[in-house]
């Protein structure tokens, strides 16, 4: 997920924009691309929960929470640059920020 959002910061913005007013195009995008990715992500989260490495909770909510953190950090990079006076976060920085959201504390 980090790699997808890092390679195309507009990916998250597109998802947000398109999902605001569901229509036939959005349904097609979900059926053709996103549903498989979401289900796969939720499956991996559930498997990691079963192993005891990922916090408890609905795997789909955790997936979307994680996507929100990761996607926002990349898609809001221009705003962050102006507001915080720092360059866009690196892939590694985003992963370090997102990891505690999903993983159980040691």
Concise synopsis of the structure shown:
With 106 residues, the chain is an all-alpha fold. It has 6 helices and no strands.
Give your account of this protein's structure:
There is one protein chain. This protein is mostly helical and 106 residues long. The protein has one domain. 77% of the residues lie in helices and 0% in strands. It has 6 helices and no strands. It is flat. The model has no long low-confidence stretch (mean pLDDT 90).
Calculate the terminal CA-CA distance, rounded to whole Å: 23 Å
Mean pLDDT: 90
The biggest sheet amounts to:
none
Low-confidence stretches: none
Query: Given the C-alpha coordinates, what overall shape results?
Result: flat
- Counting DSSP H or I runs of 4 or more residues, the number of helices is 6
Order of helices and strands: HHHHHH
List keywords for this structure.
mainly alpha; 77% helix; 6 helices; 106 residues; flat
Q: Secondary-structure map with pairings?
A:
Layout: H1 2-7, H2 10-20, H3 24-51, H4 59-75, H5 77-84, H6 91-102
Helix pairs in contact: 2-4, 3-4, 4-6
